[in-house]
Amino acid sequence: MKLSPRDLAQHIDHTLLKAEARAVDIERLCAEAREHAFWSVCVNGTRVALAASLLEDSAVKVAAVVGFPLGAMESDAKRFETETVIDLGAQEIDFVLNIGRLKDGDDGAVFRELRDVVEAAQGAPVKVIFETCLLTHEEILRACLLSIEAGARFVKTSTGFSTAGATLEQVRWMRETVGPKMGVKASGGIRDTSTALAMIAAGANRLGTSAGVAIVRGHTAESASY
Questions:
Q1: Cα gap 8→215, rounded to integer Å
Q2: How many angstroms from the chain centroid is the CA of residue 132?
Q3: Neighbours of 24 (CB within 10 A)
Q4: Is 185 known to be catalytic?
Q5: Virtual torsion, Cα 70, 20, 60, 174, nearest 10 deg
Q6: How far apart are CA 109 and CA 131, in angstroms?
Q7: How far apart are alpha carbons 207 and 68 in whole angstroms?
Q8: 226/222 Cα distance (integer angstroms)
Q9: Of 61, 78, 156, 192, which residue is the catalytic one?
């Protein structure tokens, strides 16, 4: 698969979610996103206002994580966090579903939480993070179907903070389940151009990575992490 650097950049959410990230790091992230025309930057809630101000006159969007990285807090907290980051300027929401509830088979609770976050996002696209490395094939399929029913716009493989990131097989499963109209985001462990292109060929139309600059330049970012 071949894409121009510009086209490839439009698949990338340029990401910085490390706890130690400073304001100067967010400034660098946003400058890189402007320079390379990435689709968005993805940041923690406390950095949304800064990123929104830095990107105000650009086409780069601001995505915020919610319930990150475990997804194990109460649903009301996730709803409030979503409302807060939307008010601060977030244009997309990357939200960790309740993995334990999904594994319990409590699909009703999982759906209600998904629906609440979608409503709180006020029309902004919601990407549902599954943490696929912790799930069975059947659980991934159930999570996809619940996300569709709740009105989410993307399903997403990983936080990048668990035991493994995206795999091509999981991306294919997700694309086959959600069909052509819903987004699939691959994240975690995407550090070079060949991996990025393989994920897109497998069905991902968005990539979450901190190695976006290296990817569009065709280099490997050995030390990059989601």
A1: 8
A2: 13
A3: 8
A4: yes
A5: -30
A6: 18
A7: 17
A8: 12
A9: 156
Look up residue 129 and give its DSSP letter. E
Task: Read off the tokens for 220.
Answer: 């490997």
Query: What is the distance between the alpha carbons of residues 195 and 187, in angstroms, rounded to a whole number?
Result: 11
**Annotation says 2 is catalytic:** no
Contact 167, 200 (CB under 8 A): no
Distance CA 87, CA 124 (A): 11
Q: Which of 94, 106, 127, 192 is catalytic?
A: 94
Query: Which among 78, 127, 185, 192 is annotated as catalytic?
Result: 185
- pLDDT for 221 equals 74
User: In the annotation, is 94 catalytic?
Assistant: yes
For residue 222, pLDDT beyond 70: no
For residues 224 and 159, what is the distance between their CA atoms, to the nearest angstrom? 14
Predicted TM-score of the model (pTM) = 0.95
Name the CA radius of gyration of the chain, rounded: 16
Does domain 5-217 bear CATH number 3.40.50.720?
no
pLDDT attached to residue 1: 73
Q: What is the pLDDT of residues 99-139, one digit of tens each?
A: 999 999 999 999 999 999 999 999 999 999 999 999 999 99
What whole-number percentage of the chain has pLDDT above 70?
98
Tokens of 16: 């910085």
